[in-house]
Amino acid sequence: MSLFAKAQNSFLANVVRFVFRVEIINRGSEPASGSYIVSGNHSSNYDPIILGASLTRPVRYMGKESLFKVPLLGRLIRALGAYPVNREDPGVGPIRTSINLLKDGELISVFPQGHRFDNNVPYDTAKLKSGIGMFVCTAEVGVLPVSIITKGRRTGFFRRTRVVIGDFIPYEVFAGWPESNARYKEITEFVYKAITDNYEKYKF
After folding, report:
1. Tens of pLDDT along 123-141?
2. Residue 31 is part of a domain; what is its CATH number?
3. pTM across the whole model
4. Which value, to the nearest 10 degrees, does the dihedral of the CA atoms of residues 79, 6, 22, 131 take?
5. Smallest Cα–Cα separation from 148: which of 186, 117, 127?
C-alpha cells in the first residue's frame, strides 16, 4: 500500500494518464477526506489502474486471485492497492477486508457489474450485483460514481479515455430508505444510474 500511496499524482500515475490519454472531468467532485466507495462501469482490465491514476487519493480494489500468483505481476498489483479474491468461492474474507478498509478511512473500488464485460452496453442492469448496496449499508459510507468512457467501449494504449467524476452520493441519501431484502440491489441500481447518466452525457 505504501508504494501505491506514493504513486498517486506521481510518475506512475502520470504515465498511466499519458498512455491511456486520460481526460479527467469534474475533478472537483472528489471528496478530499473520509472513506467511501468508488464505483464505475467496467469493460476493461485496465479500469482499476485508470481509476487509481485519475483520483487524488489511493483506491483499494479486489483482484482475481490467480493474478497474484504471476511472478512480478502479483507483487505489482498488490503494491498498487489490490487484494485477492477467489471469484469461484469468494467466502467472507475479501468482504471483511473491504469493510475494514472503509472503516479505517480508506477508499475501495467496487464495480456494479461485479466483473468485466467486454463491450457491454453500460445501461444493461441485468447483470448488476448487490455488493455496493451491501458495503454502503454495512460500513455506512457514501459512493463516488465514476464513468470511464472510450470510443466504442474499447480501452487501449493511446486511445482517448474520459474519466468523468460524478457528484458524490453521501450515505445519508440511503440511510432513510426502507429496510427490505431488495435494498442492496436498489442502492446498486441508483449508483449505476448515476454512472450511466454521465456516460451518456460525455460519451464520444
Report:
1. 666 678 888 999 999 999 9
2. 3.40.1130.10
3. 0.86
4. 50
5. 117
